[in-house]
Every structure is written in structure tokens, then in C-alpha cells.
Amino acid sequence: MILVTTAGKVGAEAARLLREQGVPVRVLVRDPDKATAGALAAAGAEIAAGDLDVPASIDAAMAGVSAVVLVSPAVPAQELNVVASAARAGVVHVVKVTSKASADSPIARRRGQTQIEEGLAASGIPHTLLRSNAYMQNVLALAPAIAATSGFGSAAGKGRVGMVDARDVAAVAAQVAAAPAPHAGKTYWLTGPELISNYDVAAVLSKLLGRTIAYRELTFEENKDAMIRAGVPEPIAQQNAQAFSLTADGDAEWVTDDVPAILGAPARPFEQFAADHAAAFS
Ligand SMILES: NC(=O)c1ccc[n+]([C@@H]2O[C@H](COP(=O)([O-])OP(=O)(O)OC[C@H]3O[C@@H](n4cnc5c(N)ncnc54)[C@H](OP(=O)(O)O)[C@@H]3O)[C@@H](O)[C@H]2O)c1
Question: Is residue 135 a contact partner of residue 9, using CB atoms and an 8 Å limit?
């Protein structure tokens, strides 16, 4: 039995793919009444109601589990609860979805990822780190602005990003969790097939939608304020704007072959992501 913590973008798709392969999977969710949980249950996944802040609920979901896909908003105390529970249960492998973590990053959530990674290493449980570049799905947060104004802005400047489709991150997580032995102790740097800037994003969306989508370069403050106005909580807006500013300086300019090497199939390009989500931008 594989436990997937949370049914967000990566977790839900990883669980769906595991079920497609007939692998027994359990998904820990806060709200079993949500549509995603219903769809996963219909696909044959077990749904465990739980909360990452409540260790007893994690322990209940961990019964009989051999491998864990650890993916969540990556609040250190919550993910360390999962690591502790996995250690108690004798889990043999953890696949940890993470980012460009470092202890001295200016971005709080990247420092938090380091804390989680260190806790996982200290647990002694064999594990694999999936260190992903920015998800293409982040562009969906801009979809309402794009649909309404035919434009979007960011502090990422002209910075290029090895953007990866979260569905590919999920596919790698599912594959590693289903057959973890060759991946123990490895760190994979997951990216899409190419480096793209927001000007490229605008060009792809313009072609797809048949109208000009304009990209505006914003300052850090302009970008942060725009996210707050769009409903993003202040601490998240701060960290997103920090990440975009770093992107402008080349921080996300990395591409690897890890996705195709593990999946034996190419990583999805942004064109495909955009086409699959065209309705959201229209
Ligand atoms: N976005 C990026 O560009 C990017 C890039 C690299 C790495 N990553 C990493 O990817 C991970 C996030 O993955 P994701 O984007 O797939 O996540 P996501 O879509 O944001 O989903 C997070 C899920 O966690 C659930 N959740 C939140 N708090 C919970 C709690 N206390 N107990 C149980 N469930 C809880 C949410 O449930 P509800 O539906 O109930 O809210 C949601 O389903 C993080 O580690 C992040 O650092 C992201």
C-alpha cells in the first residue's frame, strides 16, 4: 500500500496514476467530501480523512503502508509529523516532493523544505527527493487576469524557467513510489523540456487563444500588491514575489533530462500544458 499525503495537484495525479497501474493506494485528505477525493475513490483509491497537524490521524492512514509520497504545502511541522509516523510504521521508502531548498535561502518556504529534508535524512528511512522547478500550473493563478484583461504581469522580468508540468512531477513520484529500490538516496531535479520566459508564455497563450496576450514586467512591490489584491495571503505573496525576483536574476534557469530519463517519455512542453488548460484562459 502506498500512502499519498494530500490530494493537491501532484498528490491527486500521482494517486490516479498508481491506481491506473493497479497499485493499492491510500490518500490522506482533510475533506473527503471534495470532488477530487470522490474521483480518487471512484478510481479505487482508499480515502483516509486526516490532518497533517494531527499525528493520530496520520498514524491511522499509515497502517500497512510500505511507501509514502510526501507532498503537501510543506509546512515543516506537518511534514515532519508524516516522517515520524512513517518511521514508527516501518515504512521502507519516502518520495519527498520539494523545491530548490537551501538553509540560507531568502525565501522562507525554501528554508522550511531544508528543515523537512534534514528531518527525513535523520529518520534513516530510504528516500528520494524530487526537487522541482516551477510548476506550469502556477500560470493558472494568472488565468482570471488573462481572461479578463488579455495580459499579466510579474517581477520575473526576462528570467527563463525550466518550468515543469505538475503532472510530470506526479508521474515521477508515482513511478518511484511503486518501485523505489533504484531511486533510494537519489535527488532528481525535475524540469520541463525547455527554458521559457514569461514573454514565451505570453506568445504561446496568444497563439492558442487567437488574440494578443501581453506580458508586463513588474517591480517586486507591484507584483506583491497585485497578488494580495487577487486574494493571495500576504506571506505567500511576499514569498512568490521573492521567487519571481530571483527568477529575473536567473535562479530558475535550469533544465535537466531527469523526467524523460525516469519516465522513458518526454516531459510535457508548455504548449501542451496551455492547450490542455485552454478553457481556463479563455
Ligand atoms: N508550485 C510550484 O511551482 C512548486 C515548485 C517546486 C516544488 N513545489 C512543491 O510542491 C509541493 C506542493 O505540491 P502541490 O502544488 O501539488 O500542492 P497543492 O496543489 O497546493 O495541494 C496541497 C494539498 O494539501 C492539502 N492540505 C493543506 N493543509 C493540509 C493539512 N493540514 N492536512 C491535510 N491536507 C492538507 C490541501 O488540501 P485542501 O484541498 O483541503 O486545501 C491540498 O489538497 C510543495 O512541497 C512545494 O514546495 C511547488
Answer: yes
